[in-house]
Amino acid sequence: MKYSYIAKSAAKLFWSGFNLPYMVMFETTLMCNMFCEYCIFGEEGKFNDLQTRGTRDRIFKRIDEFCEMGIFALSFSGGEPLLNPNTCDYIAYAADKGMWTSMPTNGLLIKKHADGVARLDMLEVSIDSLNVQRFAKRRGVDGLPRVIENLDFVLAKRKPYTTQINAAVNMENLQDLPELAEFCKQRKIVMHPEAVHNVMRDGELLPDSELHGKDLDTVEMFLRELRMSYPKNVRFYTHYYDFYRQGGFGPKFPCRHPSKLISMKPDGAIHLPCAFVTLHKSQAPLKEIFASEAAKKIIAQEATLWDFCKGCKIGCPYEVSAYTNSPMLALESGLNFLRLL
User: Fold this and answer.
1) Of 5, 6, 180, 294, most Cβ neighbours within 10 A?
2) How many angstroms separate the CA atoms of 140 and 312, rounded?
3) In the prediction, which pLDDT does 44 show?
4) Could you please report the per-residue DSSP string of 263-314?
């Protein structure tokens, strides 16, 4: 089923001249049960987005629309996606349709939902350090032992190298990464280290947490050397650090989120231009949204850069933009993803 769907999705994308979106970021909830020092979601009580009536059926219809359009991948994100009681049902529905599914999670609830997350093509668990005190400081919760216990339980239900550790990296936890890479090697999972970057949401911005100057150079060199020591387990986009160093999205490297990465909110609404800033939102059918003048106008502007894009270095929009902006970057990104480069 999956390979048949992927082939049909690739054919639709090809015949469209690669003008269709090929991935969805579905923020199942913006609530979170961790309070990471570099993330806005952990502001307790800030979000309460699971009370909308009719949402469950609306999401199933959206997944049908995604498949009809030929969209390849669906990422279940958050906040903490497993705080939404319907997330595993959505995963199963998309997987049964043949879509490639992934989900980043903090790991606190994956044991409880082990059968559901077993359906994911890629499970991504956020662990920055195996140092209990440092984990608690960075994540705002003394939860590392529980996360590791949950992870080991779930791994018994998953194939090797279909689970990934997402590690947000700065100078504080850099020296902890070899131990984390060894942890991944022993469990036949992948580690994806990504430099900490600022995340804005409709104008809100946390205190500057980004790397600057020599610190960024140090992190990049350290990760390159770590990958040489753990070639099966450590993967990251090598060209991301040039992108980071040059200030993120700009005229030479525009964000392709509006045209290639659909942002869907917990209530099933589609937001443009991206998951982080809303200029247009709609509950209309997907084809109707992308045929509308409002959507066409926003997509036509993506190459010119809005003021709120300046400085953005967020990973998901970066990935789809790298695939789109340059055939060579697309090839290199694919090899990076497969840990072949």
Assistant:
1) 180
2) 24
3) 45
4) EE-TTS-EEEE-SS-EEEEE-S-HHHHHHSHHHHHHHHTTTT--GGGTT---
Domain CATH number, residue 174: 3.20.20.70
Residues contacting residue 17 through CB under 8 Å, at least 6 positions apart: none
Cβ neighbours of 159 (radius 10 Å): 10
**Per-residue pLDDT reduced to its tens digit, 134-192:** 999 999 999 999 999 999 999 999 999 999 999 999 999 999 999 999 999 999 999 99
Tell me the pLDDT band of 333, cut-offs 50, 70 and 90.
Answer: low
Q: For residue 140, what are the domain limits?
A: 2-337
The phi-psi region of residue 16 (left if phi > 0; otherwise alpha if psi is between -120 and 50; otherwise beta) is alpha
Task: Measure CA of the first residue to CA of the last residue in the chain; give whole Å.
Answer: 30
Check residue 266 and give its pLDDT. 92
**CA–CA dist 204, 194 (Å, integer):** 22
DSSP structure string for 11-78: HHHHHTTS-S--EEEEE--S--S---TT-STTSTTS------TTHHHHHHHHHHHHHHHT--EEEEES
Contact call for residues 270 and 263 (beta carbons, < 8 A): yes
When divided into structural domains, the chain yields a total of 1
Q: How many residues does the structure list for the chain? A: 341
